[in-house]
Amino acid sequence: MSMGSALSDATVNRELTVLRTSFNNAKKRTPPKIYNTPYFALRKETTIRQGFLPDEVYPVLRDAITEPEIRLLFVIAFHIGTRKGELLAVKWDAVDLEAGFLDLAPGTTRMGRGAGYPS
User: Fold this and answer.
1) Structural domain of residue 21, as residue ranges?
2) Cβ distance 16 to 42 under 8 Å?
3) What is the reported pTM?
4) Within this chain, do residues 113 and 73 fall inside the same structural domain, yes or no?
5) Distance separating alpha carbons of residues 63 and 45, to the nearest angstrom
């Protein structure tokens, strides 16, 4: 990568996958827009997730958080494993504490489908 670009291998692979799909769709058109799809070598992804929080450490950390909003984010993240960006994008009107429900609207999740999580 040039000019100090900091794209992760996973990001580059997602972009290459979009490009490959575009070429494949052009080939499937009637009449075909192209006849040959170029080869796109994907990068080896090395962003394996590590450092999971042991169950016995969870209550210690949870109880050490004094701000209610931050504690709620921590509890939700631990129990449903949602991505940080998805969780930080949640608006308070999507949280129903009495019913114990979190509603992630379509377009706010990685797959864009939305999700609902009971507590």
Assistant:
1) 1-48
2) yes
3) 0.46
4) yes
5) 36
Record the tokens describing residue 30, joined without a space. 């009637």
Mean pLDDT over each residue of the chain, to the nearest integer:
79
91 domain residue, yes or no: yes
Phi, psi of 81 (to 5 degrees): 65, 30
Percent pLDDT > 70 in the chain is 79
Task: Record the tokens describing residue 102, joined without a space.
Answer: 């979190």
Q: How many Å apart are CA 99 and CA 79, to the nearest integer?
A: 16
Peptide bond into 31 cis (omega under 30): yes
Strand ranges for the chain from DSSP E: 95-96, 101-104, 115-118
Taking 80 as the threshold, does the pLDDT of residue 95 lie above it?
A: no
d(CA 87, CA 95): 11
